[in-house]
Design goal:
The protein is an alpha/beta fold. It contains eleven helices and four strands, in the order E-H-H-H-E-H-E-H-H-H-E-H-H-H-H. Helix 5 crosses helix 7, helix 7 runs parallel beside helix 11 and helix 10 crosses helix 11.
Length: 250
């Protein structure tokens, strides 16, 4: 039976970088991948079919890329999307270890668990202020540029859903802070493969990791964000602390 590994987390949390690394390890993350652009020049490593599925599903719920509350997405996934997902999965599960990366998966974890009961999940999280800072510097989403507080709300929604799912299905999940993973990615991925019983080699990380493109920025801008949005920051920091305490690595 093929092993499925799904990679997800809030946007700008290192998911593309880790998906790239997992691909070098031998995980089949799709043939047609979303190319890079100004927002992510090195590429997104997202299966185009999975990406479009999530985009269409969010559009059906009349929300954009960054929903901010459960009320926007708690409705039942329609039958037409269930059929579409089943057909899509039948085409893709052809490799010994396969899966996909898409941050939007975080919003529909119970649905994908229903579709693939044996699936494994790699959850990546990152400090909320670093994520919001990265989103605003990227500047590709007008809704966030107009209302930066939405980025904090969306960070919390994505990670609350991840944490709830992790509590329910811990044996098939691996939770890790990206800022810890980059210090020793081969060891972290070895721990991931060991927990989830995935037998693949773990190559060097240097060909994937670009320190200048992904690093923790302790800037004045980050402190300004914290003081500008104190309530949102505090709530997110409490969740971030809880996730760090539960993380599988280190």
């Amino acid at each position: 039976m093929a092993t499925t590994l799904v990679v997800t987390g809030m946007h700008r949390s290192g998911t593309s970088m880790v998906a790239n690394y997992l691909q070098t390890c031998g995980v089949d993350i799709g043939e047609a991948l979303q190319p890079g652009d100004i927002g992510n020049p090195r590429g997104y490593y997202e299966d185009v079919d999975i990406l479009r599925f999530h985009q269409d599903l969010l559009a059906h719920f009349k929300v954009g890329t960054f929903p901010t509350s459960d009320l926007e997405i708690t409705r039942q996934v329609p039958a037409e999307f269930r059929r579409r997902a089943q057909e899509m999965l039948q085409r893709k599960a052809n490799s010994p270890v396969w899966g996909w990366k898409d941050c939007r998966t975080s919003l529909f974890l119970p649905f994908w668990r229903e579709m693939i009961p044996e699936a494994n999940f790699l959850f990546l999280f990152r400090h909320p202020v670093s994520v919001v800072d990265s989103l605003l510097r990227r500047g590709t989403d007008p809704s966030l540029m107009r209302r930066p507080a939405r980025a904090f709300h969306s960070w919390r929604l994505h990670n609350e859903r991840i944490l709830d799912f992790y509590h329910r299905h811990r044996a098939s999940c691996f939770l890790v802070d990206i800022d810890q993973l980059v210090h020793n990615a081969p060891a972290a991925v070895s721990a991931l493969f060991s927990k989830l019983d995935i037998r693949l080699p773990v190559p060097d990380f240097d060909g994937v990791y670009a320190p200048t493109a992904f690093k923790e920025r302790k800037s004045l801008g980050n402190f300004c964000l914290m003081f500008r949005f104190p309530f949102q920051t505090v709530r997110c920091l409490q969740l971030h602390r809880a996730m760090r305490e539960l993380a599988d690595w280190p």
